[in-house]
Every structure is written in structure tokens, then in C-alpha cells.
Design brief:
By secondary structure, the protein is an alpha/beta fold. The protein has helices at about 15-25, 40-50, 50-55, 95-110, 125-135, 145-160, 195-200, 205-215, 220-225, 235-245, 290-315, and strands at about 5-10, 30-35, 60-65, 75, 115-120, 140-145, 170-175, 180-190, 190-195, 250-260, 265-280, 280-285. It has a 6-stranded parallel β-sheet with strand order 3-2-1-4-5-6. A 3-stranded antiparallel β-sheet has the order 7-8-9. Helix 1 (about 15-25) packs across helix 10 (about 235-245), helix 5 packs across helix 11 (about 290-315) and helix 6 (about 145-160) packs antiparallel against helix 8. The longest helix has 24 residues, at about 290-315. Bound molecules: adenosine-5-diphosphoribose (APR). Adenosine-5-diphosphoribose binds near residues 11, 14, 83, 121 and 232. It is an enzyme of class 1 (oxidoreductase). Keywords: NAD, Oxidoreductase, Tricarboxylic acid cycle. InterPro entries: L-lactate/malate_DH (IPR001557), Lactate/malate_DH_C (IPR022383), Lactate/malate_DH_N (IPR001236), Lactate_DH/Glyco_Ohase_4_C (IPR015955), Malate_DH_type3 (IPR011275), NAD(P)-bd_dom_sf (IPR036291).
């Protein structure tokens, strides 16, 4: 049986890391696409040369030609610009919207059957625009944010409780921005929800609030440290987790930016929600119950994303 084909649109920091992880996990053959002459070819060759020592079987190539992504099973999109210190993800909107147009049309023309995972920011608006430009079915186009935000939350919680990250679960919903909604009630250490751990005296509400804020600022913290780019290891790892769920039909329950039509009070809107990812793409949106405070936070986040979507429509008349 032929190996799956994974097209990585954007061969920058995240794209290169995605290629490395996909090869190491032998998820399939990898094609790196980028407009920057030589970059995808150079990274592909360098990665292929790591194969003999690592012992993976995966063909890795680089291209500037969309026809080389033909027949891709998965496309992961990181094309665009990352933010610099002092910028919010939303500041990237104008530039990256143009990029989504060319990428969406490239996928539409050459890989219309792929499962598409968008990572380019501002995430929720970009995944919506990418879907519009590509015309692919909604369940085959989603965005990576919740897995990353939840991973950051889990990491900070594991430090606070001094337990293995494997025993910490966490849920972050809403838009991938300052209004994201880390859900304490649905986050646990060894199955014990965070509010119970506060009652047990293992941590305090103040400490938990600080961790939630650090999670919201997780991307900016790294931008501030790196100064010349944004996070790439954890975003790539999260993207690969979603791609693997699709390719192996794992039916993983993962938070991702998905098209929500009829759940959470939304009618046809992309935002971060719990989903099941399997061979059908986003097979289900899991409509968990939110309490009043959580729903209010979620609604505020949705409003922030709506503002970005409207801004996209203002810039690109074809989207209106
Ligand atoms: N088509 C294809 N590739 C493009 C295009 C385009 N129209 N425009 C830019 N690129 C490429 C750039 O040449 C660059 O190699 O996208 C790549 C982006 O890589 P980096 O600048 O290293 O950015 P990265 O850190 O990988 O982040 C990419 O993901 O998390 C988000 O905010 C982040 O929007 C940013 C994206």
C-alpha cells in the first residue's frame, strides 16, 4: 500500500519542524511547499540526510510548484508571517489573508481530497478564510490552536502540582487569542477536576488564575523571548497530533478550530471547540455543557473572532 502523502504549505520554522516530526513518526511521505526559492528544497534535503542515522522510511521533497502536492492526504498550512514582539496575532490579518487566498486556491486545484489543518494566525479567521478560498467541505478544514493552548495549560499545571504532564488533562476552547477560554472544570490532575484540587488545598484559586493568564499569554511569552519569530516546536507537535488522528482514524477527542453549526449557540462559525478527529476529518463537535461564566467567556471570544472575520470581508470582497 502506498504511503500517505503529507503536504506542508510553508516551510519555515513550523513547516520544517512538522516535516521532521512527520518523518520521524513515519506518518507518510512529505512535500514541503514554500514561495521562498530553495528553502523547501534545502530543508527537505537536510531532513532526508537525517534519515539514515534515524532510520526512518519517508521520502521528503521541496517545491515551489503546487502540482507537486497533487493527491495529498493531509495539508498543513503554516504559510504566512509570524508575529514580532509587541504584535498581537490579529496584527497579521491583512498579510496572511492574501496568503490564504493563494494557498486555498492551490489546495482546491491540486489536493481537494486532503484533510487541511491551518496553523497560520490569526488562526480562527484564517481557517475560515482558507475554507472559503478552497471550497473544501467544512469537516475537512480545521485549525490547530486548542491542542497547543491545552498543552501549554497542561505544562504549567504539571509544574504547579509537581506531577507528570501525562497525568494532567486540560481543555482550552474559544478563539486562539487573548480571549481564549481555559476550562478549569474540565481540566484534571489524575482525573480530579481543578476546582476540587483548590478545595483540597493542593493549590489556590490565585495560583490557578495566574496559570490561566500565563496560558492565554503563552504565545506572547515565547515571542518575547525569541524576539525574531514565534513558537514552533509545540505548534508543530500539536499539528502532527491532529494529522495522525486523521491518518490513523484514531477518533481522538481534541479541541480544534472547527466549523460549528448548531452547537454552542453558533450557526456556521469557525472557533475552538472539542471535536472528534478520525478518517472523516472533524467527525463530530462535542457539545459540552458550559456554565454561565464559561458561556459568557466563550461568547466574548466568539465576538472577538467575529470582528476578525468581518475585517477579512472588508479586505477581500470575494469573502463578503
Ligand atoms: N505561499 C507559501 N509560503 C509562503 C507564502 C505563500 N504565499 N507566504 C509566505 N510563505 C512562507 C514563508 O516563505 C516562510 O518560509 O511561510 C513561511 C512561514 O515561516 P516562518 O516565517 O518561519 O513562520 P512560522 O514560525 O513557521 O509560523 C507560520 O504559523 O503560528 C503561526 O503566527 C504564525 O502565522 C504564522 C505561521
Amino acid at each position: 500500500m502506498a504511503r500517505p502523502k503529507i503536504a506542508l504549505i510553508g516551510a519555515g520554522q513550523i513547516g520544517g519542524t512538522l516535516a521532521h516530526l512527520a518523518a520521524m513518526k513515519e506518518l507518510g511521505d512529505v512535500v514541503l511547499f514554500d514561495i521562498s526559492e530553495g528553502t523547501p528544497q534545502g530543508k527537505a534535503l537536510d531532513l532526508a540526510e537525517s534519515g539514515p542515522a534515524e532510520g526512518f522510511d519517508a521520502a521528503i521533497s521541496g517545491t515551489q510548484d503546487y502540482s507537486d502536492i497533487a493527491g495529498a492526504d493531509v495539508c498543513i498550512v503554516t504559510a504566512g508571517v509570524p508575529r514580532k514582539p509587541g504584535m498581537s496575532r490579529d496584527d497579521l490579518l491583512g498579510i496572511n489573508l492574501k496568503v490564504m487566498k493563494s494557498v486555498g486556491e492551490g489546495i482546491r486545484d491540486h489536493a481537494p481530497n486532503a484533510f487541511v489543518i491551518c496553523i497560520t494566525n490569526p488562526l480562527d479567521a484564517m481557517v475560515w478564510a482558507l475554507r472559503e478560498f478552497s471550497g473544501l467541505p467544512h469537516e475537512k478544514v480545521c485549525g490547530m490552536a486548542g491542542v497547543l493552548d491545552s498543552a501549554r495549560f497542561r505544562h504549567f499545571l504539571s509544574l504547579e502540582f509537581d506531577v507528570s504532564m501525562r497525568d494532567v488533562t486540560a481543555f482550552v476552547l474559544g478563539g486562539h487569542g487573548d480571549t481564549m477560554v481555559p476550562l478549569s472544570r474540565y481540566s484534571t490532575v489524575g482525573g480530579v477536576p481543578l476546582p476540587d484540587l483548590v478545595k483540597m488545598g493542593w493549590t489556590t484559586q490565585e495560583k490557578l488564575d495566574a496559570i490561566i493568564q500565563r496560558t492565554r499569554d503563552g504565545g506572547a511569552e515565547i515571542v518575547g523571548l525569541l524576539k525574531t519569530g514565534s513558537a514552533f516546536y509545540a505548534p508543530a507537535t500539536a499539528g502532527i497530533e491532529m494529522a495522525e488522528a486523521y491518518l490513523k482514524d484514531q477518533k481522538r477527542l481534541l479541541p480544534c478550530a472547527a466549523y460549528v453549526d448548531g452547537a454552542f449557540g453558533l450557526n456556521g462559525f469557525y472557533v475552538g471547540v472539542p471535536t472528534i478527529i478520525g478518517k472523516g476529518g472533524v467527525e463530530r463537535v462535542v457539545n459540552i455543557q458550559l456554565d454561565k461564566t464559561e458561556q459568557a467567556m466563550f461568547d466574548k471570544s466568539v465576538d472577538a473572532v467575529k470582528g476578525l472575520v468581518e475585517a477579512c470581508k472588508g479586505i477581500e470582497p470575494a469573502l463578503a
